Amino acid sequence: MHTEVNELKDFLIDKVQGGRFVLGIDGLSRSGKTTFTEELEKRLERENIPFRTFHIDDHIVTRENRYDTGQEEWYEYYSLQWDIEGLRRKLFDKLKYASEVALPFYDKVSDTHQFHTISLPENSLLIIEGIFLQRKEWKHFFDYIVYLDCPREKRFLREKEEIRANISKFINRYWKAEEYYLDSEQPIKNADMVVES
Questions:
Q1: In a structure prediction context, what are the per-residue pLDDT tens digits for the chain, which is 197 residues long?
Q2: CATH of the domain at 35
Q3: CB under 8 A, 24+ apart: contacts of 96-104
């Protein structure tokens, strides 16, 4: 993975000189997106490349809006876990021109949101890290997308043992949503860079 991160960093150096460059770090759950992003951030800092990172999971909706909604579990995860249109308006639509964005950050303990304002440097790399980034509502906002490809079995073993014990949740909620994403959006085929993780 270190080689791929270095290659990506070298590719990105020139991209931020003339404005903003929007990079997506896509991949299914536990594929290594956060680790990859953190490694990239370290290299960007060494090169003094300005950047901002947004983690899609910081912006999920409250529990009542994503559980027991009457929809199938996989649909809740894929289509209701995030305010897809809200994030498009509040974040994606503004990435290229706004000086700042105000976003709802989810607090797991209180199951509430707090809005925070994030400044966007004029010439910078904007990194969006998260699952399902190449969904039809968002994918056209990216200038470049990296997809981290990792087998389901390996990703599953990265979960904590007590979480793995609830296998029905994986079967009915997570894996069906992942299969829908892979079939409908073909993220591996459409990514600009695929990293085996």
A1: 778 999 999 999 888 877 899 999 999 999 999 999 999 999 999 999 999 999 999 999 999 999 999 999 999 999 999 999 999 999 999 999 999 999 999 999 999 999 999 999 999 999 999 999 999 999 999 999 999 999 999 999 999 999 899 999 999 999 999 999 999 999 999 999 999 98
A2: 3.40.50.300
A3: 96/19, 96/20, 96/22, 103/54, 103/58, 103/59, 104/59
- Rounded Cα distance, 67 and 76, in Å: 7
Give the total number of structural domains in the chain. Answer: 1
Q: Please give the single-letter amino acid code of residue 90.
A: K
Return d(Cα 54, Cα 102) in angstroms, integer. Answer: 12
Give the structural domain span for 12. 2-196
91: its two tokens:
């974040």
DSSP for 43-85, please give it.
Answer: HHHHTT--EEEEEGGGGBPPGGGTSSSSS-HHHIIIIISB-HH
Pair 25, 125: CB distance under 8 Å: no
